[in-house]
């Protein structure tokens, strides 16, 4: 199998957009990426609020676990519904509604008066997280010129990592006053910014073209600064659309089923290689490794969060230059090595600082590759007509496996020991490396339509 997606028409390069055009697109990206910020913030804000919820609502261990995990269940539901909704009502409308949902349900989480009202509000916040996790990268991919699409879509991952760190600092600042309610309510500010931004941003021209609104689609490409290329880009989109089938069955037609397999595989590997054991449990891991105090462990966890942000910025600079495949391969290899070394360190009861550096190496490897590149690839490898539904399958896989890993990590440590657990994740990283090597095509610089025709020709090419 050739891993290189061939180029398409000259209009497809998209790399000729000038400086001011880039400005428009980057503004669009910055606003839409607030969806990612809310995703990151709302998944991690709970860690700081947990202790106060337990005492204020008089929760048992099981009730607390339920209250913490309920948002992940909501995200599963949200990602299942998001594909259909965004295909039907448009990317912009759904993002706008998600902003409203985030604002409303975050406030309700903060005002909750007991386990039940809190869980309902967090379930709904979770649904918004699920929707945002799908629609944000999808919208960004459809708005971006091919030459800088990698960087723009990866702003979503940057925003996720920033959201995680901001939640950490907000929790830290409010913990002294036991003000857990404001930890949740604070999310209303980025939600309002998302709503305001989406009110002025345009709908995705690719979605408009699909719904037959040709003039508005053309206008959209012009607004995005495509200039002379707008008409040619629209024609390329329309030609691709003519070949596409609608509906869930289309996901399994020859060629595209391989794309669906690649997307779901990447989504599962992004989670079962253990990222959220580090994101959700790093203070606990550091304490297990002998870190002297909870405070020192929490501070070290914050450094890991900041490293995650910084390396994502590096990845954004590299992804349209070095390509998706190389970053994935480097990243999964680095993750495997770091986890292997973490296992060795735990086995030999090495100093906590060694484990801390190995965790940094792991997060750097994740942030350069699988972190941003998974979201990027699942937003660019599917044809326009099935993009929403195919992304639903992939994001469902993300949230399902996230739930599985987060929910079993502590039991795994009890059963296999810390060394054994990290070695298991290390072996899974080796499998992820092999998967990326064997199946992931290079999509750098290609239009979404060129990527689509690559899959179309994929099975014929293999049959030959
Ligand atoms: C993953 C999340 C993870 C985050 C950490 C995202 O790409 O999907 O599960 O918590 O990265 O940066």
Return the string of H and E elements.
HHHHHHHHHHHHHHHHHHH
The helical percent reads over 70%
Spell out which ligands are present: beta-D-glucopyranose
Whole-number average pLDDT?
A: 90
Shape: globular
Report the sheet with the most strands, covering strand number, pairing sense and barrel closure. none
Radius of gyration: 22 Å
Residue stretches low in confidence (pLDDT < 50, at least 5 long) are 9-17
The tally of beta strands, per DSSP, is 0
Beta-strand residue percentage: under 5%
- Distance from N terminus to C terminus (CA atoms, Å) equals 11 Å
Structural class: mainly alpha
Number of helices: 19
Describe the structure.
The protein is mainly alpha-helical and about 475 residues long. Helix content is about 80%, strand content about 0%. The protein has 19 helices and no strands. It has helices spanning about 20-30, 35-55, 60-90, 90-110, 115-145, 150-175, 180-185, 190-200, 205-210, 215-225, 230-245, 255-270, 275-290, 295-320, 325-345, 350-370, 370-380, 385-440, 450-464. The chain is globular, with a radius of gyration of 22 Å. Beta-D-glucopyranose binds next to helix 6, helix 13, helix 17 and helix 18.
């Amino acid at each position: 199998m050739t891993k290189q997606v061939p180029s398409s028409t000259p209009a497809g390069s998209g790399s000729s957009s000038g400086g001011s055009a880039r400005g428009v697109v980057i503004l669009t990206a910055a606003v839409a990426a607030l969806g990612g910020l809310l995703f990151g913030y709302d998944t991690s804000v709970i860690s700081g609020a947990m202790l106060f919820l337990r005492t204020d609502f008089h929760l048992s261990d099981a009730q607390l676990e339920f209250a913490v995990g309920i948002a992940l269940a909501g995200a599963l539901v949200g990602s299942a519904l998001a594909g259909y909704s965004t295909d039907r009502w448009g990317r912009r409308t759904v993002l706008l509604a998600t902003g409203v949902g985030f604002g409303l349900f975050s406030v309700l989480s903060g005002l909750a008066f007991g386990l039940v009202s809190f869980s309902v509000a967090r379930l709904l916040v979770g649904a918004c997280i699920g929707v945002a996790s799908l629609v944000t990268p999808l919208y960004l991919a459809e708005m971006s010129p091919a030459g800088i699409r990698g960087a723009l879509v990866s702003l979503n991952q940057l925003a996720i990592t920033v959201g995680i760190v901001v939640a950490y600092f907000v929790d830290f600042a409010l913990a002294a006053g036991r003000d857990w309610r404001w930890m949740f309510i604070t999310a209303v500010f980025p939600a309002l910014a998302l709503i305001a931004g989406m009110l002025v941003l345009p709908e995705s021209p690719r979605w408009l073209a699909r719904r037959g609104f040709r003039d508005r689609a053309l206008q959209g490409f012009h607004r995005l600064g495509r200039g002379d290329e707008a008409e040619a880009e629209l024609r390329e989109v329309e030609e691709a659309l003519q070949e596409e089938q609608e509906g869930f069955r289309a996901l399994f037609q020859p060629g595209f089923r391989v794309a669906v397999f690649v997307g779901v595989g990447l989504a599962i590997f992004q989670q079962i290689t253990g990222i959220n054991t580090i994101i959700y449990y790093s203070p606990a891991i550091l304490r297990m490794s002998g870190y002297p105090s909870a405070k020192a462990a929490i501070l070290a966890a914050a450094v890991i969060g900041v490293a995650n942000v910084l390396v994502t910025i590096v990845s954004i600079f590299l992804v349209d230059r070095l390509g998706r495949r190389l970053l994935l391969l480097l990243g999964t290899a680095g993750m495997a090595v770091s986890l292997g070394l973490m296992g060795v360190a735990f086995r030999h009861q090495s100093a906590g600082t060694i484990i801390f550096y190995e965790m940094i190496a792991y997060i750097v490897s994740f942030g350069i590759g699988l972190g941003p590149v998974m979201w990027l690839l699942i937003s660019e490898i599917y044809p326009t007509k099935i993009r929403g539904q195919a992304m639903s399958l992939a994001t469902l896989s993300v949230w399902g496996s996230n739930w599985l890993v987060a929910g079993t990590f502590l039991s795994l440590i009890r059963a296999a020991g810390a060394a054994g657990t990290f070695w298991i994740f290390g072996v899974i990283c080796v499998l992820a490396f092999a998967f990326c090597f064997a199946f992931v095509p290079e999509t750098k610089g290609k239009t979404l339509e060129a990527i689509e025709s690559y899959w179309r020709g994929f099975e014929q090419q293999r049959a030959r």
